[in-house]
Every structure is written in structure tokens, then in C-alpha cells.
Amino acid sequence: MSSPRIGVLALQGDVREHVRALTGSGAEACEVRRAAELGSLDGLVLPGGESTTIGRLLRVFDLLDPLRAVVAGGLPVFGSCAGMILLARDVIDGRPDQPLIGGLDVVVRRNAFGRQVESFETDLAVAGVEGPAVHAVFIRAPWVEKAGDGVDVLARVGDRPVAIRQGPLLATSFHPELTGDIRVHRLFVQIVRSELGLKRGRS
Ligand SMILES: NC(=O)CC[C@H](N)C(=O)O
């Protein structure tokens, strides 16, 4: 089977790490900066970084509406950390006017784990990821405060969802791209492949 083509939004954040993890998961990965590049993609990753900065750059580069359109059109998207915030329908403790792409029926709390533990690491069981627990790195991470019925929770810290899926959209509060364990990226590539299969079946 040919490799799915997966873009990584490359305005700010840890782009190279995602490209590496996607390539290791059997995808053809490319950096994306312009709306014209979205049309050729089978999937997209929104990296971690700073959601307010990425949001501002989305406006500057006229990417906000094109991204909303591809999400509404069913493109599989994986958002990690800041990427999860961008996919949310609303954010608590965001900056005023912070632009979101939306798509996931969730409200997230930005910088949710608080100052004293802004960054921490823990091992998590993630539904859909086989084998040992995933070592999860949280850096000023959000959590999911409210989720609609269509959202599957794949992992929690305490009772807070930190990995979720809604159809072709996947999001984690943590950074699977930073650990060298590419199983979450493999899960996303699987989602992309099965969406491609569905699309072919329909056409
Ligand atoms: N590591 C991250 O992506 C941090 C997210 C950041 N706190 C934000 O609001 O976007």
C-alpha cells in the first residue's frame, strides 16, 4: 500500500519531531505553510508550541478558514498540546480573541495542570495503543474540561481526559513526538489509512 501523505503545520512549534515520527510510522510527511498545500494531504498534524502564537500566525497566513474547511470536510487531523487547543470548540484561560480551528466537540482548559507542575512526565495507558504504557510528556499542557457524547476518551490523568478521538480527529495533551515512542503516530497513520479506505469505497 502506498504511503499516506501527512502534513505538519509548520508555523511554530516542534515540527521536525512530528515529521520524524510520521516518517517512522510509514507516512510521507511534509511541512505545510500555505492553504494551497492542504489539498494534496491525506492527514494533518498540528504540533505543540504556543496556541496563541500559532493562532495569530494562522490569521496572518490566511489559513484559519481553509483549515476549518478541511476539518469540516473530514480530513484526519492529530493535534498535540497546542494542537489540541486549536482543535477545541472553546478554550478556558485562553487569550481574548484567541483563534481556534475547532472540529472537536470539547472545551479545553489551557495551561491546566498549574504552575507548580507546568511540566511533568507520566506513564499512561492509551486506548488503541497496544503494549506497554505510553511515556507521556506534559509541557504547560491543557486538559479536556468538557467533552460531547461523540468524543472517545483514550487516556486520563486522574479524571481529566488527556487523549481523545472524535472520528478522524485525534488529540493529546501530551507530546508523543518527543519520546521516540511512535505508537501514537502509528495510531494516527492507521486512522488516516482507514479514512482513505472509506473514501475510496465511497467514490
Ligand atoms: N507544549 C504546548 O504545546 C503548550 C501549549 C501552550 N500552553 C498553549 O497554550 O498553547
From TrEMBL:
L-glutamine binds at G49, E50, S51, R110, I139, R140. Pathway: Cofactor biosynthesis; pyridoxal 5'-phosphate biosynthesis. PROSITE patterns: GATASE_TYPE_1 (PS51273), PDXT_SNO_1 (PS01236), PDXT_SNO_2 (PS51130). Transmembrane segments: none annotated. GO terms for biological process: L-glutamine catabolic process; pyridoxal phosphate biosynthetic process; pyridoxine metabolic process. Its EC number is 4.3.3.6, 3.5.1.2. It catalyses: aldehydo-D-ribose 5-phosphate + D-glyceraldehyde 3-phosphate + L-glutamine = pyridoxal 5'-phosphate + L-glutamate + phosphate + 3 H2O + H(+); L-glutamine + H2O = L-glutamate + NH4(+). The active site is at C81, H175, E177. GO terms for cellular component: cytosol; glutaminase complex. InterPro entries: Class_I_gatase-like, PdxT/SNO, PdxT/SNO_CS. GO terms for molecular function: glutaminase activity; pyridoxal 5'-phosphate synthase (glutamine hydrolysing) activity; transferase activity. Keywords: Glutamine amidotransferase, Hydrolase, Lyase, Pyridoxal phosphate, Transferase. CDD domains: GATase1_PB. Belongs to the glutaminase PdxT/SNO family. In the presence of PdxS, forms a dodecamer of heterodimers. Only shows activity in the heterodimer. Catalyzes the hydrolysis of glutamine to glutamate and ammonia as part of the biosynthesis of pyridoxal 5'-phosphate. The resulting ammonia molecule is channeled to the active site of PdxS. This is Pyridoxal 5'-phosphate synthase subunit PdxT.
